[in-house]
Structure formats: structure tokens, C-alpha cells
Design brief:
Blueprint (H helix, E strand, L loop, with lengths): L8 H11 L4 H9 L5 H8 L4 H13 L3 E5 L6 E5 L1 H4 L2 H14 L2 H5 L4 H7 L14 E7 L8 E6 L6 E3 L9 E5 L1 H8 L5 H7 L3 E4 L1 H5 L1 H4 L24 H6 L2
Parallel strand pairs: 3-6
Antiparallel strand pairs: 1-2, 3-4, 4-5, 6-7
Length: 249
């Protein structure tokens, strides 16, 4: 027997009414990733104003999707997903997989925010795949009109990865020069490191071991078969040349 759509269409419509307001799904996804505090959620979501985030959190609490917990001793507030929100995980995962396979990579990644991307980088570097010593990686972006175009990842044994927007005072081990779409495409498995190097959208210099093993220590989503994913177009414009990039320093 042919499978029919789920029930009456209004069931889906009601779900859309809950999830449709802008930023609702990114907020839930960021909380799914582990953020529980207002500032962490804001930084992980990106260009959302504090007032709008406050409004959305109140709406999600009213809908029974999150719980607001305040420590009476410190006043610290945490937001936790309820089981109702946790039950959304398969639907959100399926939605993300559909986007990977059906929306062109450049269209899907064009709104990538560099500061948000680098904030998320704290959880995207596999420290167990790096040498057991302090490692400093500089990321420099060629995109125009950025508030900050250079960031440093400071990785130290048995410590959380730190992301700095000012020089941390240590020698740099690896220089990564790229643009926001190229780096986001690597992380989302919309392209590969070797492909971006060949296309001239990624340059690596410095420690040869770190450069050679970037595909091991930098997270990239692998939950879908590569041939099903819409890859970043090969004929897109390469970023400015390596020499020109250096000349701007």
C-alpha cells in the first residue's frame, strides 16, 4: 500500500506555526549543541539582537519547549530543552539532511557569519588529533567589510580550545587563509580541503604536519554519503591571490 502523508495537513501546519518564527530553529539547534546560557546561545546563533532572543526564549518557554532555571544564590540563568524539544531532534536532523542534498551549497552558506563560525570553532577542532603541546592556528578571511578578519585558535593540552580576535602573544604554528563560504563548506562536507586548495580558495602555511592532517583535526559532517550532497561549485571565483593577501597585512 502506498504510504500516505501524516494525518490531516493541519497537524503539520500547527507544527510550522510553532517553529516558523525567525530564529526559532537556530536557537533550538544551538541548545541541542549544548549551549544553555543567554550569551552562549546568542553567539552561537549569530546576528540576533538581545531583545529578539529574549522574546524567542520566552515564547519557547511558553510553548513548553524550553525550561528557564535560575540559581537563586548567583542569579545565573540557564535554559534547558524539555523532552518536547528533544523529540524534535529527528525532524531537525532530517531537515538538515534535506538541505544538504537539495539546496545549492553557495546559497545555503551565503549568510555564514565569520564571528559565529569562529565561535563554533571551539567545538570543531579535535584536540586529540593534534600534537600533545600548545598549538596556535591563525585563521584569516578574505571577505570584505568584516569587523575582524583574523582570529587565532589557541589549543593547549587538557584545556578547552580558545578563540581570540586579538594576537594571543604566542608564535603561530599554522596559517589558514580562506573565505567564510569555503571554510563553512569544508565543515559542512560540501567540499574537501584538497578541493579548496586546488580551487585557490584555501591556503595553508607553517607547520607541515598540521597542514597535512587538517582533514583529521578539523570537524567535517559525514552523516551523508558524499555523492548525495550538493557540493560547492567548482567554478566560483577564487579568493585573492596568496601574495595579495599577504600584502594587506
Amino acid at each position: 500500500m502506498k504510504t500516505q502523508p501524516y494525518g490531516i495537513v493541519c497537524s503539520i501546519s500547527h507544527a510550522c506555526e510553532v517553529l516558523e518564527p525567525r530564529w526559532t530553529i537556530p536557537i533550538l539547534s544551538e541548545m541541542w549543541a549544548g549551549s544553555t546560557r543567554f550569551n552562549d546561545i546568542k553567539r552561537g546563533v549569530g546576528n540576533i539582537s538581545p531583545a529578539l532572543l529574549t522574546k524567542r526564549l520566552k515564547e519557547l518557554e511558553k510553548q513548553g519547549l524550553i525550561e528557564r532555571i535560575e540559581d537563586p544564590a548567583t542569579g545565573q540563568v540557564d535554559y534547558l530543552r524539555t523532552q518536547r524539544a528533544i523529540d524534535l531532534e529527528p525532524a531537525l536532523l532530517a531537515l538538515g539532511e534535506w538541505a544538504q542534498c537539495n539546496i545549492e551549497a553557495r546559497q545555503a552558506l551565503q549568510d555564514t557569519d565569520v564571528s559565529t563560525l569562529m565561535w563554533q570553532m571551539r567545538g570543531l577542532i579535535s584536540t586529540d588529533q593534534l600534537p600533545n603541546r600548545q598549538v596556535v592556528i591563525q585563521f584569516r578571511f578574505s571577505d570584505p567589510n568584516l569587523e575582524y578578519d583574523t582570529y587565532w585558535a589557541l589549543i593547549r593540552p587538557k584545556m578547552d580550545v580558545e578563540i581570540c580576535s586579538s594576537i594571543p602573544g604566542f608564535d603561530v604554528d599554522l596559517y589558514v587563509e580562506t573565505d567564510r563560504i569555503s571554510l563553512a563548506a569544508i565543515i559542512m562536507n560540501r567540499t574537501t580541503i584538497s578541493r579548496e586548495l586546488d580551487a585557490g580558495r584555501l591556503f595553508l602555511s607553517g607547520d607541515a604536519l598540521l597542514a597535512r592532517t587538517m582533514d583529521k583535526w578539523l570537524y567535517h559532517r559525514t552523516n551523508l554519503e558524499p555523492h548525495k550532497v550538493k557540493l560547492l561549485d567548482e567554478d566560483s571565483t577564487p579568493m585573492e591571490t596568496h601574495d595579495a593577501f599577504r600584502a594587506r597585512a
